[in-house]
Amino acid sequence: MATDQYHEPPSELSEETRTFARMCASLSEEAEAIGWYEQRIAVEKDAAAEAIMRDSLAEEYKHFSMELEFLLRAKPQWRETARGILFKDGDIVKHGEAAEEAASD
After folding, report:
1. Which of 22, 48, 82, 86 is 20 to 30 Å from 93 at the Cα level?
2. Rounded to two decimals, what is the model's pTM?
3. DSSP result, 57-87
4. Is 103 buried (19+), middle (13-18) or exposed (0-12) by CB count in 10 A?
């Protein structure tokens, strides 16, 4: 069993914590795949190949979003922080600072 996603002995972690760690690893993998597809699409000359890659990229967006939602549901403080940042116009850093402060109150 692979354990490089854990920083503590897996046998000492609850099932909930192990699931959370797996979902965090999956989210990272989806983000990496999104980056790879963006690069591949940027240089692909064959229209059919590019269309397939764009379809695959859409799947990665979906998977990333589902995994993020799972994690946000598991951690209310994270969700509250995200609410203060995501889908807002304006300065991302300022929204982040305000959201972090509000979520920790």
Report:
1. 22
2. 0.87
3. HHHHHHHHHHHHHHHHHH-HHHHHHHHTTTT
4. middle
